[in-house]
Amino acid sequence: MENVFMAGFSAITWTSMKIPEFCDNITKCLDDIEMFVKEVTDMKEARIDEVLDSIARMCFVCLPDSPIKPQELLELNLQHRAKLAKEMELKSSTAEKAVIDLINIFMDTVTQPDLQAEKYNWMDPERAVKPVGSSSKLLMGEDAGNTPIFIYLSIHNA
Predict the structure, then answer these.
(1) Is 89 a member of any domain?
(2) Which domain of life does the UniProt lineage start with (predicted)?
(3) How many domains does the chain have?
(4) 142 in any annotated domain
C-alpha cells in the first residue's frame, strides 16, 4: 500500500499525465485491502466467534427438573460431562484450525524475499499437538444425603 501511494508524493505533479493511472492504482489497492479486511472479518466472525460463543453458552452442570438422589445426580453429570468434553474438543479444534488459517492469511501478505522460506514456521509443532483433556473432581461430606454436593468441572492441558 505504501508503495502505491509513494508515487503520489514524489513523481506525480498536478500537470502529470500519469494521474489517471495513479488513481486507478490507488483504487485497486484500496479495493484489495477492503476485500482482505472483509475476508478476515467474515472468517473471524463465522469460524471463530461463533464457535467460542457456543462454548460460552454451554451448561456445565446438568440439574434435573425433579429431585434425585446424589448418586444419580453424580452419574447424570458424569455422563453430561463426557458428552460436553467431546463437543468442546471438537469445537475447540475447529476454532484452533480457523485461527491458524487466519494467521496464515496474514502471513500470505508478507512479501519480503528474505522471509519467504520461514513465514509459515510461526507455530511450535510440539505445542500444537499437545493433547487437551478434562477432569472432574467431586467433593462431598461424609453424609451424602444431607450434605451439599459441589461438582467442579475443569478443562486443562493433559
Answers:
(1) yes
(2) Eukaryota
(3) 1
(4) no
Question: How far apart are alpha carbons 121 and 110 in whole angstroms?
Answer: 13
Residue 135 CA to residue 91 CA, distance in Å, equals: 18
Q: Which burial class, exposed, middle or buried, applies to 1 when counting CB atoms under 10 A from its CB (0-12, 13-18, 19+)?
A: exposed
pTM (2 decimals)?
0.62
Q: Which domain holds residue 29?
A: 2-130
CB 77 within 8 A of CB 64: no
Residue 136 pLDDT exceeds 60:
no
Are the C-beta atoms of residues 156 and 137 closer than 8 Å to each other? no
Cβ partners under 8 Å of residue 58, min gap 6: 84, 87, 88
Alpha-carbon distance of 4 to 83, in angstroms, equals 54
